[in-house]
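fold-stage: in
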Amino acid sequence: MDATTALRCLTHRAERAFKADEEARTRLADELGRGAVIDLSMAIDAALVSSANAKPWRQLMQRIERHGVREGLAKQKAEALESLLSYGMSMSTSLVANAARLAEQEGLRRFLNAVDTLDVDEDDVPAADERTEAGKATPSQERVVLEAIRRNGVTLQEDGVKVEVGSCPRRSMVQYAIDMGWAVVDTSGDLRGGQAVTLTSLGEENLAG
C-alpha cells in the first residue's frame, strides 16, 4: 500500500478511536454530575476501554509525524507487541487498576489486529521531517498537530510547548499551524503562565477534511 493510502486508512481508524474515547469520557463526566445515586460502573468501564483503545493510536500518529508513515507504523507495532508480551499475571488490590490494566492489554491486541496486514510501500515513504513543498508540512504532520491542539490542551510557554494531556507536538509544528491560520494563540496572558492555543474554524475544517 502506498504511504498516502496507508495514512488515510490509519488516520480514519485513529479518529474513530479518538471520538469513542472523547464520547466515553463525556458520558462519564455527565453521570458524575448527576449525583451519587447513579451506578457509574458501566460508564467507568467504557471510559477505561475507550481510553486504552485510543492510546496506541495516539502514539502512532505522533510517531508518524516524527518518522514517516512506514517507519512510524513499524515502531508502534513493535512497541505495542513488546508491551503486550511483557505483561505478567500479577494483579493489584485495586479493582479499577486491574480493569485499566486488562483494558490496556485488550487495546494493544485490538491495535495490532487492526494494523497486522497493513504494509506500506518502502519506495513511497516520506523521511522523518520531510516537507511536501518548501515551507509546508506533510499531511500526517498537519493532522497530528491539529489533533493535539484540539484535544491535548496545548499552550505556548517560554521554554517550549506544554500540554495538559496526551502527546506534545513540536513548537515548530504548532507555530506552523498558527502561521497557516489553523490555530490562534490567546495573548491575553504572558508566556510564563502559558498562552493557550486553539483551533480556528479553518483549522477545524482542515481536520474534518
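fold-stage: in (second)
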Amino acid sequence: MSNDKIMQEKLSAFVDNELDELETRQLMAALSQDATLRRTWERYHVARSALHQDSEILLVANVAEKVAQQIESEPSRAGSYRRQQALRVVSTLALAASVAAIAILGVQRLNDKPESSAAALVAGGKPAGQVIRSGTTRWDTKEPGAENALNAYLVEHNEFASTSGIGGMMPYVRVVGYDNNNK
C-alpha cells in the first residue's frame, strides 16, 4: 500500500474520530505540511456532512489555505504596539519632568522671599549701600505725638511691605525709627 493510500485511510479514520492520540498528532503534522492532504480532508468533511445529513455543509474549497492567506495579508500590529508603549513611556516622563519643574520653581519662590528680621539681613552679608542722613528732625511738624505715630507707621509698613510680594526698592531699604525725645 502506498504512503498516500495510508494517509487517506488515516484521514478517513480521523474524520470519523477513530484515531488514537499518537496517530492524530502525526496526521496533524502531515496536514500542516501537505496542501493536497488538506484538500482531501475538506472533501472528506463535506462527504461526512452530506452522509449524516447535517444542515450545514461546507461548500467552500481550500478554506484552510484562504484563512492562512488572510492572516498573512493582515498588517502586523507589533509596530503599533511598540509605538504605543514608547508614547506611554514618553508621556510618563514628560509628566514627571513637569511635576519636578513645578516643585523646583515653587521651592525657589519660597526661598526668594526677603526676610523680615534685621538679624537675618545682617547674617546675609549683603554689602551696605551709601547711608543718607538728613537733619536731626525727621518730620516737619509741630506736634510731637504726630512724629511718634509717623515713625511707628513707617517701621510697621517696612516690616510688612517686604512680605507682600510687591517688588521695588523697599525690601532693600530699612527704616530706622527713633525718637529723640525718648533718649
